[in-house]
Amino acid sequence: MQYNDAAEVVWYVWKHYQHLLSGLEIRVDKAILAREKASAVNNPNLAKRLEKDLGFVLDEEVNKALADGPESFRRRVCQRLLSAEAASIAINRCPQCGRVTRAPRAKQCFCSVVIGMPRPPNKPLS
Ligand SMILES: [Zn+2]
Predict the structure, then answer these.
(1) Is residue 99 situated within a structural domain?
(2) What are the pLDDT digits (tens) for 10-46?
(3) Is residue 107 part of a domain?
(4) Which domain holds residue 54?
(5) How many domains does the chain fold into?
(6) Ligand 1 centroid vs 97 CA: distance in angstroms?
(7) Ligand 1 centroid – CA 19 distance (Å)
(8) Distance from the CA of 13 to the center of ligand 1, in angstroms?
């Protein structure tokens, strides 16, 4: 799978900085999960209950936030957080390849570079 930096940044911020979400953004996040779960269950009654009880289907603010779909919503929230909460967010990138790591304190990259460890001198890149 090809690396998509913008998508990785959204995933990273979404996964590691949920404590910075607003009340509405938390409701929308819960609604996304409940609606996804409801669409995945085979029991129509259970699906209806999940959507009604946990999916915020009657919440106009939630529905408006999800008008363009969950991915678009998450992208907008990440853009907001990266500008409004820039001082609180540190994106951990590999010094070798520049990719976003899996976690803020990750010590190893997908390219197998150990972050924070200098490369041994005179060792050629393989
Ligand atoms: Zn790397």
Answers:
(1) no
(2) 999 999 999 999 999 999 999 999 999 998 999 999 8
(3) no
(4) 5-88
(5) 1
(6) 4
(7) 27
(8) 18
CA of residue 46 to ligand 1 center, whole Å = 44
| Nearest of 87, 115, 116, 81 to residue 101 by alpha carbon | 115
Phi and psi based region of residue 90 (left: phi greater than 0; alpha: psi -120 to 50; beta: remaining): beta
Q: Hey, what amino acid is at 69? A: G
The DSSP result for the chain, as a single string, is ----HHHHHHHHHHHH-GGG--HHHHHHHHHHHHHHHHHH-S-HHHHHHHHHHHS-TT-HHHHHHTTT-HHHHHHHHHHHHHHHTGGG----B-TTT--B-SSTT--B-TT--BTTSPPPTTPPP-
Torsion of CA 86, 90, 91, 94, to 10 degrees: 140
Residues near ion ligand 1 (CB < 5 Å) are: 94, 96-97, 109, 111, 113
pLDDT in tens, 69-86: 999 999 999 999 999 999
